[in-house]
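[scheduler] slot 2 assigned
[scheduler] job type: sequence-to-structure, two independent chains
[scheduler] chain ordering preserved from manifest
[runner] begin chain α
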Amino acid sequence: MHILLGLLGSLVTIFYLLDRLGIDIGGMNPFHWYRRHAFAKKYGSDPIYSIEDPVHIAALLVIGAAKLDGDVTAEQKNAAQDQFVTEFSMDEREASQLFGSAAHLLAAPQLIDTQLKKLANRNKDGFSAEQASSLMRMMVKVASAGGSISVKQQEFIDSVRAAYIKEVRGEGTWA
């Protein structure tokens, strides 16, 4: 027993001296390493992929479909806010804030196509059949608000339709 206490005391002394010399020994702690790794992974990832609420995901997909051809026009913005008010049962201020946050998250135009496809595939199980059909209607109305739907927008809408409307899922509404 006295040998074990001597070894433990020696280890504590060595760790204390290393700490006093400025050598970081925190990397030897597996719990500290795991927390640091999880934080770095969460901090370095795209914030779009941390969204789990179907309303916010739907808003991102609707605004993203309109933004695939470039900037969102005033007609598309008004159509999106009107759709948010009617479909999500929001007031005008909440719809405006939802539009602003979705447009801000989709600020990098060169990444929109890949971000939206990953977001759609990652969250396709969180939507009921009613929500998926409502999402498709909103995407078509907002994308066609500024004129006709482009080929790129139609391909994206068709890919989301193929991913979301495969089978009948559980019933649910947006509210």
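[runner] end chain α
[runner] begin chain β
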Amino acid sequence: MGKGGVVLGIIALIIGGGGLGLAAINWLELGSLEIPEVPTSPEKDFWYSYKESIYTPPDLVYVTVPNLYVIVDLSNISTLHLLFTTSSRILPNPVSFADMIFYFWIDGTRLLNPFTRAGPYEGTATYQYIPVTLQFVLEMSTGTHNISISVFSETVGNLIRDSVLTVNKVNF
């Protein structure tokens, strides 16, 4: 082997040794890194409640729809989209109001807005089935919140069925 071959061999050994040295340093650094723990239960961003059965609220009283609520636990301030849908049957009252009014009920307080009405203001039909939708976007504070629906029925015998309440975190 000539002088050129020896020089090339020495250069190859230096480069190879340097590569092994860098690999060893990298391996030692990675060994000291702490791998973050994966959370076992990620925070939820969707909640819902469904009530198939019929509910006939008393007349002229604000009440919450029983067994239709969601409990939302927030670890930081969040924007939420609330959506309520139901099917209502409205009985007429030819001499007075006959409708039902729906509100969101949050942590024991009825929100005055938004609200929605179902049914005739004054009606003469035997009954009417009316789909109801109420939705709202609001910012909620950190903590646990109870969200449900409040209803006010103007007439005895009005009812709702197939009610759904959903809550979604809104990501901007």
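[runner] end chain β
[qc] chain β: The beta strands are 46-51, 62-74, 78-90, 100-106, 109-118, 128-140, 143-153, 159-169.
[scheduler] slot 2 released
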